Amino acid sequence: MAIFKHQPTMLFLLSVFMLCFDTSESFIGVTYGQYGYIYPEYEETAKFLTSTYIQKFRTFETNALVARAMGEKGIDVVFSTSDNSNIHILLSNKDATDNWVQKEILPVANYIDILTIGNQVISSGDTQTINDLVPLMELVQEALNKVNLTKIKVSTVHSMAVLSAQEPPSNASFNPAFAATMNPLLRFLREHNSPFMITNYPYYSFQNNPTPENLAFCTFQKNAGRVDPVTGYKYWNMFDWKIDAIRNALDGYQYRDLEIMVAETGWPTWGDNREVGATTENARIYNANLVHHLRTSTGTPMMPNKVVSTYIQSIFDENLKSNNGGLGSDAYWGIVNFKDLTWKYSCGLSKYFYKNTIPPPPPKTH
User: Fold this and answer.
1) What DSSP state is assigned to residue 177?
2) How far lies 50's CA from each of 29, 30, 69, 265, in Å?
3) Rounded to whole angstroms, what are the CA distances from 48 to 61, 77, 333?
4) Residue 49: its pLDDT value, please?
5) Which pairing describes strands 234-235 and 226-227: parallel, antiparallel, or unpaired?
6) Pick the residue with more confidence: 26 or 285?
7) How far apart are CA 198 and CA 157, in angstroms?
8) Inter-CA distances, 140 with 131, 143, 201, Å
9) What is the pLDDT of residues 305-360, one digit of tens each?
10) C-alpha–C-alpha distance, residues 257 and 264, integer Å
11) Is the peptide bond before 170 cis (omega within 30 degrees of 0)?
């Protein structure tokens, strides 16, 4: 499938060069859900991604075809157990876990970066699954070790609901109701140098307070900022506010060394009548400013000059989600049109289209 081609000028090339990431330090990736139809072939999608600055690809399943298509183009993949219901099944049968690793992971291991167990398990309310989470992570790690796949990190993804409080960031702490799972989970992540993975959605924070000032704060636009009264740090965007809330909670548990990774963030291009601000323009502004913010290596007030590796939700819309009874926006987080592999809007991730992609920079973070 053809991609947009452009004959770059020297100024254009210089601009792109100056904006490139040091990939050894951080990355921008995309998520890939499959609640849709008529998606491009995996090889076509992988070829398209080589025309972008997207470096990682996070799936919500284990799919060797995806891993191979992406990996052969130099794009690392995050695999996941299909859904939370599989956690107890895998844990109850050690041989099944070993076989799963050998059949699903080992053949494409060179292309896999992280293996996530479940999704937002700790805040799910399912006691059995919560109790099974860390034991299964340990069992999967053991199975990986048996076949010398120690480079693959094992982790799990959390929503902000793991916090009992998150405002201001200096007051953020993990919900003590989750301590029985959170403590061994954090020990596991430290022992294996795995990241603490979170979802970070300023869009939903805007839904809770849909004012023009909050929209500006949630989309990295010019705003008055918010001061944490304890630390005195001034925040210019909700993305950093949420990351530092997690940082403070981890520090409170004495895990200052754990890396934070944003497993999902983004902004939808459409929503139903219960939602405000789900538009293509707001999605463009959010993601373009997010990319700019990450590229400037500003960091957050609590972690200056530290770029948090981030996955944007998502590469394609998932049109079948419109039938699941959730919010209208659930199906419309994609940044690329799946019908023809063109950008829904420009947000600074294309190597071939730069003009008018990055808005003026927002205020300094601190």
Assistant:
1) G
2) 12, 13, 12, 21
3) 21, 16, 18
4) 97
5) antiparallel
6) 285
7) 5
8) 15, 5, 29
9) 999 999 999 999 998 886 666 889 999 999 999 999 999 999 999 998 644 444 44
10) 21
11) no
